[in-house]
Write a structure and sequence with these properties.
234 residues; alpha/beta; 35% helix; globular
Length: 234
């Protein structure tokens, strides 16, 4: 497998993506948006997993210079400015999309994006921005609304959600579903019972924060994502 770090620019910031290439000459592209911790080994590993399945996968950099937080306080300090300025967030994920479409061996007509936690919100905002993608997948993502929704939502949506996630209460889930329906989005939401935030990450066990790994939900959500890819890339 070939992997490399690539550089791309957005609004004067230097971004560092991590790409794992498939062996195909014309493979679908999957962007991967990281958690609040930054573009760390977790998303690098997911990129390599996807490359082994025949996709070219790019772990995007939402913070610039490949920054990774050292603890929860630093993670929050990196994420908060983008949560407060969703147009800047949109610019950064759209710049990653543009860079990804130019990668060697990518079929630019077959593009998806997946995201974890904060990254789940990022890929949902990609749909809200009207970007030309086949679909997006949010793993235990934040589902709060955004003012960029008025830009014209487009693309299919799969949300993989932990029913006990304290960061995404039922009211937020309900409001999100109403938003997607009102926008005529082809959407689906899978809710895993007894499952908390960050259920895909074996290292994310913090009861005080409401995070807990769940092996069953991890495997089920990955399978659901692959089924979704089979549909949108058919």
């Amino acid at each position: 497998m070939k992997t490399e770090q690539i550089q791309y620019k957005v609004n004067g910031n230097n971004m560092l993506g991590y790409v794992a290439y498939s062996d195909s000459d014309s493979s679908p592209l999957v962007l991967i948006a990281h958690t609040w911790a930054g573009k760390d080994s977790f998303v690098h590993d997911r990129a390599e997993d996807l490359a082994n399945l025949g996709y070219t996968a790019m772990a995007v950099d939402m913070y610039g210079e490949g920054r990774v937080g050292a603890d929860a306080a630093e993670n929050e300090s990196l994420m908060t400015p983008l949560l407060s300025n969703r147009y800047e967030l949109k610019d950064r994920i759209q710049a990653a999309l543009e860079a990804g479409r130019k990668l060697e061996g990518v079929n630019p007509a077959k593009v998806a994006a997946i995201g974890y936690c904060f990254g789940g919100l990022v890929v949902l905002d990609l749909v809200r921005s009207g970007a030309d993608v086949n679909g997006v997948v949010s793993f235990h993502g934040l589902l709060g609304p955004s003012e960029i929704s008025n830009d014209g939502e487009k693309g299919k949506v799969l949300v993989l959600h932990g029913e006990r996630d304290p960061m995404v209460p039922l009211e937020m889930v309900d409001d999100f579903q109403k938003e997607m329906t009102a926008a005529s989005i082809d959407w689906q939401l899978h809710s895993y019972g007894g499952t908390y935030h960050a259920f895909t990450n074996p290292d994310a066990n913090d009861p005080a924060l409401g995070t807990q790994y769940n092996e069953d939900a991890d495997k089920r959500s990955w399978s659901s994502m692959l089924n979704f890819f089979n549909e949108i890339f058919a």
